[in-house]
Specification:
Number of domains of chain B: 2
Largest sheet of chain B: 5 strands, mixed
Order of helices and strands of chain A: EEEEEEHHHHEHEHEEEEEEHEEE
Helix content of chain B: 25-40%
Largest sheet of chain A: 6 strands, antiparallel
GO molecular function (chain A): peptidase activity
Distance between the termini of chain B: 80 Å
Number of strands of chain A: 17
Number of helices of chain B: 15
Pfam families (chain B): CP_ATPgrasp_2 (PF14403)
Number of helices of chain A: 7
Largest interface: A-B, 49 and 34 residues
Organism (chain B): Kribbella kalugense
Shape of chain B: globular
CATH topology of the largest domain in chain A: C8orf32 fold
Protein name (chain B): Putative circularly permuted ATP-grasp superfamily protein
Helix content of chain A: 10-25%
Radius of gyration of chain B: 24 Å
Oligomer: heterodimer
Radius of gyration of chain A: 19 Å
Strand order of the largest sheet of chain B: 5-24-23-20-19
Distance between the termini of chain A: 11 Å
Strand content of chain B: 15-25%
Strand content of chain A: 35-45%
Structural class of chain B: alpha+beta
InterPro entries (chain B): ATP-dep_Glu-Cys_Ligase-2 (IPR051680), CP_ATPgrasp_2 (IPR025841), UCP005522 (IPR016450)
């Protein structure tokens, strides 16, 4: 299946008192690869500003901008058109001993390490090891994702932007960011290199051309089992034409969609909307 | 040294029962007596009586206090103890050392450019990728930042020691904000005031023009489009232990000394706020650690730095000196790969050898380290100031056990070295001169064309008998370091002309203004 999608992502902050200076980085531009073709992308902000673009260490396109006019609300609108296809089945399958070879351990070291979001945890590692028994690395990825999907209840408000995999697991609830971190923590515990993917999900499988649906700012994982391939533990589905990817990294901290520093009163996030329209 | 009565100062100097008796003494050869480099100095010192020594030492202390040279030790300001016996390095010794330092800086420049660029050395399998990615000071924020003239190590402090044979070896590289050069200049100024007679008998190469070289390097680093670069020195503030140095360098270069709140980023350009409006800044000689430099990319709670600075550098509108992320080049595990790095980038072998080092992250070497923990020195791979170092021979079994656990828990974080019996130089202890262990930190300044090495550097001396720990933060002192000019050279020698201790004054009359504090981070959860 091949889709063409327009994504309009609106996000930002409202401030208790006027902000006179703010410095921000947006990681909101979809990427280009053999599954996804970026046709056009644009970023706007209110108040208006000129963004500086660069590609970061992880290959993500970053729009950096600063504001020096007093404002009580910052709105960022990222619009893009992308063509997407379904992810092909992984064609190379590494064995467990290949995954533990010095070459693989060295090449993918960053995706095997523990972070604040993806900490080492004895019990989670024990569960991951039990899921690995009798399975290939590929099947283990699916089994871990399924376990995470079944273990967590999708619930907003329980966890926050700084919650770790363990926090979510202990709470038994979370959002896609938590599903992804928990899956990463378990995959890394059994030596499968795994990374965080930030992107969007179109929520209606049978959408008509021209129909606009409410999409989601989404997150899922990619694992390396001979090659990189993705899986969506929040929904327990493969990566397909409804997924639009923006960035990959070790965890959320590497791909944060919008982050910044400002002077002034307390900020609350404005309602994030992601409008996704199937164009073809 | 039995002729003690005629030379009271050196009474019992080379006592064979002294600790670390194998160490190389820089003044005395155990067989041939006084080494050539020290002949004149020795002859000047010998007739002195203990009382003369005390009088001179007091004069020296007074001069230091007058000049306001202090350092902070555990929060307390003290005069930095300057020993009255200088350390002497001959022209030939210096020339070898200088070439070794220059070679090292060139190789490390190439290494940093590669690591924050294509990482070809990793792609070619010369260094493991994990070596780089696991380095605490490998800052991914700096990837892709290409300084206009390619220089990242504007100032390096390469710490060297002399081993039992008297050969110089590199102990560690300092590529971030090496400090101490102000002591080099101030020690010289003080010594010249108190001992003009000694300088009259030696051709000592001058150190007073360091700031000229530093300013040249900083101006050369500016974006190519800038004809008259505006350089500033960025300090964390008056409470920093090296604030004296920051202000001295700014004064000598005739540039503004600023704090983070004096600067402002707008559209990726850095401005200095002044009462006369905003002045564009082209080069920032910063003495703030990477982690506090820009709250957008590093610690969001830091108020020491400048929000937006990293991307202003990325956009090529300002140059940060030294560059962000240089710590990957002075990591002590990466240090052990210096021979490979030199060979890869320069096709050369090291002119200055490292100290033999065991890498705890390699299982075989870790086993050996753990077996010999009580005879080795173990050091954290990052950090300086002597913190975290465990001297096996001095450690209690309990301390060794704790160290064993630390190494096993984090093998990447530790290296081990045999105890190097650092060379000794006569040092005033009580009313006599005693051998005390020293190291040396030469300072190198890279302007993109040439690497200048300030003749000499900071000699640090461990005052307690037998101590091999020379850091000022561990209570050490310093010595004026004399590099002798070659016999027939036209090099400027101290006290041979004008220029000693002179400085350019800033002609700017504007005062900095301060902006609001930026310290609130905002981020949204992905749902």
């Amino acid at each position: 299946m091949k889709w063409r999608l327009r994504v309009v992502h609106t996000t930002g902050y409202r401030y208790a008192t006027a902000v006179t200076q703010s410095y921000n980085e947006a990681r909101l531009t979809p990427r280009h690869d053999d599954r996804q073709n970026l046709m056009v992308a644009r970023l706007e902000s209110v108040p208006a500003t000129r963004a500086y673009k660069y590609t970061d260490y992880w290959g993500t396109e970053v729009n950096s901008f600063d504001l020096h006019v007093p404002h009580t609300e910052l709105k960022v609108i990222a619009a893009s058109v992308v063509e997407t296809t379904d992810q092909p089945e992984p064609s190379v399958a590494a064995t467990w001993s290949q995954l533990r070879s010095p070459e693989v351990l060295d090449a993918y070291a960053e995706y095997l390490e523990w972070t604040d979001y993806v900490p080492k945890h004895r019990e989670l590692a024990a569960v991951a090891r039990s899921l690995r028994k009798g399975r290939t690395p590929e099947d283990t990825v699916l089994a871990v994702s399924k376990w995470v999907h079944d273990k967590l209840k999708y619930q907003r408000g329980t966890t926050g932007v700084h919650s770790s995999a363990v926090d979510a697991w202990q709470a038994g609830e979370g959002v896609c960011q938590d599903y992804a971190h928990l899956t990463l923590a378990m995959l890394r515990a059994v030596d499968i290199p795994a990374r965080y993917v930030s992107g969007y999900l179109h929520t209606k499988p049978d959408a008509e051309v021209g129909e606009t649906v409410v999409g989601e700012s989404h997150a899922w994982v990619e694992a390396w089992t001979g090659q990189w391939w993705g899986f969506d533990p929040t929904n327990d589905i493969s990566i397909g034409h409804r997924h639009v990817w923006v960035a990959t990294g070790r965890d959320y901290g590497d791909v944060s969609p919008l982050k910044g520093i400002y002077s002034g009163g307390a900020a609350t996030a404005i309602e994030v909307t992601v409008d996704m329209t199937r164009l073809a | 040294m039995s002729r003690s009565s005629s030379r009271p100062l050196f009474d019992g100097y080379l006592d064979p029962r002294r600790p670390h008796a194998q160490a190389y003494d820089e003044m005395f050869d155990p067989v041939d007596g006084v080494r050539t480099a020290y002949k004149r100095l020795h002859d000047s010192l010998t007739p002195l009586q203990p009382a003369d020594l005390t009088t001179r030492a007091e004069a020296l202390d007074r001069a230091l206090v007058d000049q306001g040279i202090t350092f902070s030790l555990s929060g307390e300001e003290r005069p930095f103890p300057l020993d009255l016996v200088p350390r002497v390095i001959t022209a030939a010794e210096w020339s070898r050392l200088e070439r070794g330092v220059v070679q090292r800086v060139r190789a490390l420049e190439a290494f940093l450019a590669d690591i924050y660029g294509e990482q070809q050395i990793v792609a070619d399998g010369v260094l493991p990728r994990r070596l780089i990615t696991s380095c605490e000071h490998f800052h991914r924020q700096a990837a892709g930042i290409a300084p206009p003239n390619g220089v990242r190590i504007h100032v390096a402090g390469i710490d060297v020691v002399r081993d039992e044979q008297g050969d110089f070896r590199v102990l560690e590289d300092n590529l971030r904000s090496p400090s101490g050069v102000s002591y080099v200049m101030e020690n010289r100024r003080t010594m010249a005031r108190v001992f003009p007679d000694l300088f009259a008998k030696h051709r000592v190469r001058a150190v007073g023009d360091y700031a000229v070289h530093l300013l040249r390097s900083l101006r050369a680093a500016a974006p190519a489009s800038v004809t008259d670069p505006n350089v500033v020195v960025l300090t964390p503030g008056v409470y920093n232990s090296a604030y004296f140095e920051h202000s001295l360098l700014a004064r000598q270069m005739g540039v503004e000394l600023v704090e983070g709140r004096d600067l402002l980023a707008r559209n990726n350009v850095i401005y200095l706020r002044t009462t006369e409006g905003d002045q564009r800044v082209d080069v920032i000689y910063r003495r703030i650690d990477d982690e506090f430099l820009d709250p957008v990319h590093f610690d969001p709670d830091s108020v020491l730095g400048v929000a937006g600075l990293v991307n202003a550098a990325r956009a090529g509108n300002v140059v940060i000196a030294n560059a962000i992320g240089n710590g990957v080049g002075d990591d002590k595990l990466i240090y052990t790969y210096l021979p490979e790095i030199l060979k890869y980038y320069l096709g050369e072998t090291p002119l200055l050898p490292n100290v033999d080092t065991y890498r705890c992250w390699l299982p075989a070497e870790q086993t050996e380290v753990l077996d010999r923990l009580d005879e080795l020195v173990t050091k954290p791979v990052e950090g300086s100031g002597g913190y975290g170092i465990v001297f096996g021979p001095d450690a209690s079994p309990k301390e060794l056990q704790a160290q064993r656990r630390r190494i096993k828990a984090n093998p990447r974080g530790w290296i081990a070295q045999p105890v190097v019996q650092l060379s000794t130089v006569p040092t005033k202890v009580g009313e006599r001169l005693q051998p005390r262990h020293v190291d040396l930190r030469p300072f190198a300044v890279n302007d993109g064309d040439d690497v200048f090495v300030l003749p000499g550097g900071l000699t640090r001396v461990a005052i307690p008998e037998g101590s091999l720990i020379v850091n000022s933060s561990q209570g050490g002192g310093s010595k004026d370091t004399w590099v002798l000019a070659p016999r027939a050279s036209g090099e400027d020698a101290e006290l041979r002309g004008p220029g000693l201790g002179t400085s350019v004054r800033s002609d700017s009359t504007s005062t900095p203004e301060r902006g609001p504090e930026l310290n609130v981070a905002q981020q949204q959860q992905q749902q």
